[in-house]
Amino acid sequence: MVVAAFGGVVPAKKQRRENRLIDANRQQPSPAGPATEPLQNLRSISRHDFVLASRRHTMTIPANDNKPRLMTPKEAAAATTMSRVLLARMSKENRFPQPVQIGLKRIAYVRAEVEAWIENAIGARAAA
Fold it and tell me: Is the dihedral of CA 96, 97, 103, 104 positive or negative?
């Protein structure tokens, strides 16, 4: 047990953990130069944040990459900035491309049709 500055008692294990966090967050100049300075705070990044950051980089698709012919409703929603429910409703009203049934409970949109729909929406805005 360690007596804290405010007069309370802090368990030794918690105090050691706090000291480690303080040491990890201390800004010290890197001996290798500025190229490795971002690695100094690596210990303060949680595993969850690290996984999210690594996924963020793998989900970007370069323009010259071979894209799959079909896109999930989630991808179509992201491409159009509309919700999946709205896209389904618009498909039923023939205001959006019809999805392809690829399983009993699975649908997908044809990427070329969705991209053509987006281009038409942009063209209609320019014409108006």
Answer: positive
Nearest Cα neighbor of 74 from 86, 63, 65 is 86
> Within 10 Å of residue 76's Cβ, how many Cβ atoms?
27
Query: What is the identity of the amino acid at 101?
Result: Q
pTM of the model: 0.50
Distances (CA, A) of 4 to 7, 10, 13, 20, 21: 5, 6, 13, 17, 17
Mean pLDDT, consecutive 10-residue segments, the chain of 128 residues? 58 66 57 52 57 52 71 96 97 96 95 95 86
Backbone angles phi, psi at 46, to 5 degrees: -75, 160
Q: Are the C-beta atoms of residues 42 and 54 closer than 8 Å to each other?
A: no
DSSP-assigned beta bridge partners for residue 110: 70
Helix axes 111-127, 73-80, angle to 10 degrees: 20
- All structural domains of the chain with their residue ranges: 70-127
CATH class of 70-127: mainly alpha
